[in-house]
Specification:
By secondary structure, this protein is an alpha/beta fold. It has nine helices and eight strands. It has a five-stranded parallel sheet with strand order 5-6-7-4-8. A three-stranded antiparallel sheet has the order 1-2-3, with no helix packed on it.
Length: 248
């Protein structure tokens, strides 16, 4: 015999929101009907603000220059098959960075001025940082200056300590390779950095406007061979400069 008594409907869930001046309302607490009390939604605070803070921390960790802080794969301008190929190679390198990191696979971004090499390098850095890896972008001049600073008798750091520090970061991006004079002392310093990372199986990305043969001549054959070993990735940027229309 069926009953005509229907079950009482569940009372509507009560929620309390607070207003974020930047992102609008966010859920602060929910009323528990069984316990008859308000329960805080954790972690407390605007989720969008929390994501922004986490991203800011990641950007600080990657040490991306302010000019390239907004460079992502999504904002890279694609107008040709060559640009599409460059974007694909860099995105795949970032997506597969766990394997790249384990194998110490390096990458060389070379080609014309103002074609987006720095843009994609910084997009890679952002992506790998979200995976929990550290990264650092420095120009060759900055590398040389930091090492030379240790030559001062009053320096508290040794040259070997600086080299080790460069070797420890998960991803090192060397910008403006070939912009300096390429003296014997500079070649030795760059070889020491690249070799230390090679021995530690740490990936390095090199950015240069030179041809591959010129990069090899500038760095020295031994250093360049280390970048190309273990299926190192070469990405070419041979199209018109974006500068004047878009930042690199």
């Amino acid at each position: 015999m069926s009953s005509n008594i229907s079950e009482s409907p569940e009372p509507p869930e009560e929620k309390y929101y607070e207003e974020c001046p930047s992102h609008g309302p966010w859920l602060r607490s929910i009323f528990d009907q069984e316990k008859q009390e308000w329960l805080a939604v954790t972690p407390i605070g605007c989720p969008a603000c929390r994501r922004d803070a986490q991203l800011h921390t990641l950007l600080q960790r990657t040490l991306i220059p302010p000019r390239f802080a907004n460079c992502t794969f999504e904002t890279f301008r694609v107008e040709s098959p060559e640009q599409e190929a460059a974007l694909y190679s860099c995105r795949k390198y970032a997506e597969d960075f766990k394997q790249m990191h384990e194998k110490g696979v390096c990458m060389v971004l070379q080609g014309n001025v103002g074609t987006g090499k720095n843009h994609l390098a910084c997009a890679i850095a952002r992506q790998v940082s979200k995976q929990g890896y550290s990264s650092l972008l420095l120009s060759v001049a900055e590398i040389i200056q930091r090492v030379r600073a240790t030559w001062d008798p009053q320096s508290s750091e040794k040259e070997t300590e600086i080299i080790e520090r460069f070797a420890d970061v998960d991803l090192l991006i060397l910008d403006e390779v070939g912009r300096q004079y390429g003296s014997g002392a500079e070649k030795i310093t760059l070889f020491q950095v690249i070799d230390a990372r090679y021995r530690a199986m740490r990936p390095t990305i090199v950015i240069s406007n030179l041809l591959p043969t010129e990069i090899s001549g500038y760095l020295g054959g031994a250093a360049y061979d280390r970048l190309r070993e273990n299926h190192g990735v070469l990405v070419e940027f041979y199209w018109e400069s974006h500068r004047g229309r878009h930042d690199e």
